[in-house]
Amino acid sequence: MSYEAIFYLKMIKSQAFEVTLADKQSVLLPAVYISDFIKGNHKRVRVKASYEGQHIDFYAALKREKSGLHKIYFSKAKQKELGVFMNDYFQLQIFEDTSKYGVEISEELEAVLLSDYDAFTIFENLTPGKQRSIIYAIQRYKSPQMRVDKALILIENLKRGITDQKLWFKKS
Q1: Strand order of the sheet with strand 70-73?
Q2: Which of 15, 17, 64, 92 is the most core-located residue (most Cβ within 10 A)?
Q3: CB proximity list for 71: less than 8 A, separation 6 or greater
Q4: What are phi and psi of 15, to 5 degrees?
């Protein structure tokens, strides 16, 4: 058995279960399906959502409400991509998040960071939330060249001490 196969077997994952939207942009998760994640104090998870033959994969924060219930954020964009509406029932399966930053980093951003030790050090010292914000900001560009260009501007601004998200992509 390969290392990947053994790793996959040891990874925490739930059974697939049926849910509906709790409100405009979130889904309540039944405790019976996520108890291993709660016991393991997992804050971030990988999610597979399925509906009528369609499926999407994404990363999410496992949020505990004051009532003790747990939920994940499920944006309008994800709802549209999956084709679900407010009263539709769809399938979710929750997996342990094994990524370094709580989301997959694009090849372009990773290459730019690895090419500049100072920028990499600054990036690694940012809070996990700020790191994810940067990763998402770069991922929203469709063209690989645009992701490289924006990553280069971003790391130069980080090296100048600019941490305000509104100024990340401003050329000086």
Answers
A1: 21-23, 26-29, 70-73, 63-64
A2: 92
A3: 22, 26, 27, 28, 29, 63, 65
A4: -75, 160
Mean pLDDT of the chain: 89
The model's pLDDT over 17-27, given as tens digits with 9 standing for 90+, comes to: 999 999 999 99
Q: Are 97 and 48 in contact (CB under 8 A)?
A: no
What is the identity of the amino acid at 79? Q
Structural domains of the chain, with CATH = 3-96 (2.40.30.100), 107-167 (no CATH)
DSSP 8-state symbol, 16: P
Per-residue pLDDT tens digits for 35-76: 999 898 899 999 999 999 999 999 999 999 998 899 999 999
- Cα–Cα distance, 14 to 54 (Å, whole number): 19
CB-based burial of residue 143 (10 Å sphere; 0-12 exposed, 13-18 middle, 19+ buried)?
Answer: exposed
Cα distances (Å, whole numbers) of residue 88 to 21, 85, 113, 146: 8, 5, 42, 37
* Amino acid found at 80: K
Name the pTM for this structure. Answer: 0.75
